[in-house]
Amino acid sequence: MPIQFDAGLEQQVNQFLGDVDDFLTVKTGTTVDKLKSLLNCEEKSISYNAIAFLAFANQAAVNKDASREAGLIKLFLEFCHPSKIITVLPMVKHASMGLMFLANHSDENKKEIGDLKGIDTIFELLRDLLVMIKSPPEDVKKEDIVSSISQSLNLVIFLASLQSNREVMGTVQNFLVLNSLLAYENPQSLDLQLQIQEKALSATNNICMHKENKENCRVAGCIENVLKLLKSTKPSIQDSSLRMLYNMTITDANREAIRRCKGLETLASMLSGQAEALTLLSLKALSNMAVDRQTIEYAVANQESVLQPIYGVFPSSYGQGCSDALLDQVLTVIQNLVSEENLIDTVAKSGIIAKLVGATKGMPLTNTTHQSILVKASCIISALITIEEVQQAAVEQGVITLLVEMIQLPSAEVRREAARALANATPYYDDVRAEIGAQGGVKLCVDLLLQADKELVKQAARALVNLARNTHNEEKLYESKGLEHSIRLINSPEKDLKMLGTKLLVNLSLNEQARIAFCQKGGLSIVVQLLTSSDPELQLQGTKIATNLAISGRNRKVMNEQAPDLIPALKALVNSSVSDIKLQSEVSLNNLAFPYEASYEGLDQMEDAMPIFMQSSQYERDDDDEDDEDEAEKDERRRQEEEELRLAAEKEVEERKRIMQEEVKRIEERRKAEHEKRLQEEQELRQKKEEAEKLRLAQEAMEKLRLEQEAAAAAEAEKIRLAEEQRIIKEKEVAEQERIKQLTEQQKQKEEEEAKIALEKAKKEEAERLEKAEALRLQKEQEERIRKEKEIEAERLRVQEEERLAKERQAEEDRMRAVEEEKLKLMEAEIKQREEDIRRQKIEEEERRKREEQEKKLKDQQDKASQESARLAQEAARAQKRTHIVQEIMQVEVNYVKNLTLMVRKFLHPLAQLSTSKRPLLTPDRITQIFSTIENIQNHNSIFSDGLTSRIKRWLADNKKDHLIIGDIFQKIGGFMQDYSKYINNYNQSIKTYNETKKTNLPFAQFIKKVESDPELNDRELENLLITPVQQLPRYIMLIQDLIRNTHDDHPDYKPLTEALDKIKHITTIINEKKRDAEDAFAMLQIHQQVHGKVPNNFVTPHRKFIREGAVHFGSSSGSFKDKDPIVFLFNDMVMMTIKHPNKPNEYKYRYSCQFSTTTTIEELPSVNNGFIIKSNQWWSFSCSTPQEKTSWMETIQKSLTNLPKESKVLTSKK
Asked: pTM of this prediction?
């Protein structure tokens, strides 16, 4: 196919060829051949015009293949050789233009240029042209140089769009050429400079689309010049530069080069004062940069120049000056920044939280961009909230409010990440958990447990496990059916969900109502299932649940009497190889062994009916004065209390009636609402059916109209076609008649046969066309029939489904109605029973009052029985006083357990959780030093308090008809003494460690201050709480002594109380002795560590105890005192003489020691001022500063000699 010239160009070419006809060496060839023959003409202007016409001919895309076949690509490349630019630069200009046109039209042409080594030629040409433009020769037009460079760069841009060419073009030498063009400067012609830089940038960007070329681009130094071009005044250059950097940031080496060239600062500077498109590109590049640790470290180290400009993109509040696209992209950058775990702490301190909360709070979820923003925001918060400082400030900064908002959004992905963030926010600080609960977070997380998304359920469960550590959240979780959800999680086949369910149940079982309800609902089978599991972690959680459940007496009754597999399962775990399981199972069995009541029926009513006698015990106050009341006042007060109980019971009945009436009213309203809702739904359904039927009929009418229109159009088209065919046939016949006149007879016959064959062929084709048209019409009718059948079937299925749902709804309503009626019947029965009880109690009260009045009359009438009456009154007063003391004991124990629980839940547990974090406040060892066995003591006394309270409530519920016996419960305190002993022995060290830690550990001190400000602590400080277990044993002794004084010696509880008192006193004595021994041993170890030198090997022995120390001068028997700064240590069997260490404060250097024996004596030494002498195997003299000090030392030493330990006496006898 020959090369075609358009009309205007062809006229110019023909005129040109006519003008230069004398110079043509090819006279008969094509136009292209003639033009090619003129390229070597001696007349330069002719050659320039000839190549120009050839170049412009390729401006038309129609010649893309013809030019290649005619060899023009090779021809143009020959004239683009760098050697031509000196002699024939205009031809170079037109040749590059021709190549540019050809490369732009066809990938085959691009490939052809590459195959002919044209890429190397073009880059060599660019290199020489760049040299030439800086200092152009006098006989060369600068416009030709500029045009050649511009067209060559365009050619490079086009060539780089082909993958195979890009692979070849990305050499370091080529990038060096492009880098020189990127750095080109021409202050005299700024437009020229910008033009060259822009095209060089586009060429570089296209070549770097091939990943392997990016490395050579960096080696050639292009990154630095591209960064400079970001400051260009031309927006298109800025845009191309940003795109270039964005593409370059996918490799580590390029990111390093950008950082080295201050590229992060440059990109950050593009975030303000620019068009949104440029800002968005800058953020994308920064996002790519922030995928490696080095960039994150750099950004954190240069917050002012990098981080703060990024933060500046955030709006002050949602919708204020920042588009959703920008916000989404800046969150991508921040998400990458917080991905480096070791640097997240520094990022958290840079102020990002406040920016994030302000930008996303209140954002609606109306599109995918909003979803992306909220997901990223919650992911960032989830990462940052793991930092303790962020958790502490989460409430004040509004993070909690934002997360609670997110968790209510309809997007599962947003809710999943928000739940994860809530779980990460709640492991340590109780005020955070309390705030989440106050904002409804517990109920929201419970609702999430019902979702189908397992990951969402997992994160919600994690959050609930932490939230349940707060007392108020425990109650909310229980009220939100937390027990049922935890059981459902435990029964899940997913191991993670099963484990979270057990942990949630462990925390829930700390709540009294929850643990009782769990046992009543048959939960013990789940506990047995956990205990017999093959998974040690599930076994451990099962033992913890059993331990907590056994705190309640009624649960111990159920667990011992109705769960035959429970105790054997726990006993089997006592032999476990896992120490935690073994220890926890032993604690569970000890809890289960604690006594419980024979019946707990009626104790729930006592909970509300019991009057609160006092808020704090007289044994917990400094004022121990007792007020004496006469008999009449006591009787009056008792009557008032009983009247208050009766009125409270009647009020309770009235309240129950009111509740039942409200319940009946609520049921009726619900049924009415459901009936109205059902009628409304049926009405809406009928309307939908009618609308659907109308729509169907309209569609059918429209379809019918469309088919009729198509048929009419087809008929019209067929009519036109036939008319056209008739016209053509007539024209052919006329032409044929004319032609036949000129043909011979033989030709005429031949052509008639051919015409006949052609006519038959045309008829056959027409028949086939009609047949195909008919088949197509039948196919469409068949498809339409099938579509209508499907619509009918779908409508039938829909009707069936609606009928099924209606039946199910009716069945559910019938079931609910039956349940509600049954509930109302039960309520009526309970009210009747309660009214009957009140009536019976009223009758009994009237009888009792009558009886008391008769007794009083009898007392007045019978003077002889006055002493007996007085005795009876005294016994009654004594019984009343005993009742008061018992209630006092119960209140003391309740308050004590409350204090223990506060210590464990507000201080110990959060600190223990923090000790496992990245930045623990205290080490586990330091926590143990401060709190010792407080958690075990809390467990013991919770059971003790439950047993004591249940016994007293049982007695009060039975109207005090039997003797109250609590001595046997106090005797069980002996089982707690091991933990009390450890705690009391460690108390002094505990307080010392606590105070030292508060002084040296500022975060710990801040944590203590924050927790102590919790309203639930009621201004109680931890240091005051820590002493309560130490005070409790003496308090028990005072309580029991007071109770014994008001208990008759023939009372069934007198002997158990006396035995319990003796036992507690004995144990207290042993603990005090052990405490003294422990303090003595600690003092000996401390002295041994402080004294340096040749201390006797047997210095630390069990029988040796430290007595005192002082600055006493010592020397030989002659009274010579040479040592300065003497310090003498006295023990129960020896004296050790030391001096202060010259370099180490509070430490000493050993000098001498004097071992006591049965022959050792002490005497005054008159020759020495305030002196005395110790005579043993060796004699030693001592001098005190005052006579009083000498007397004190001599008396103390003499006492030690008198009470010399047996071990020292034995040692003396051996010697």
From this structure: 0.62
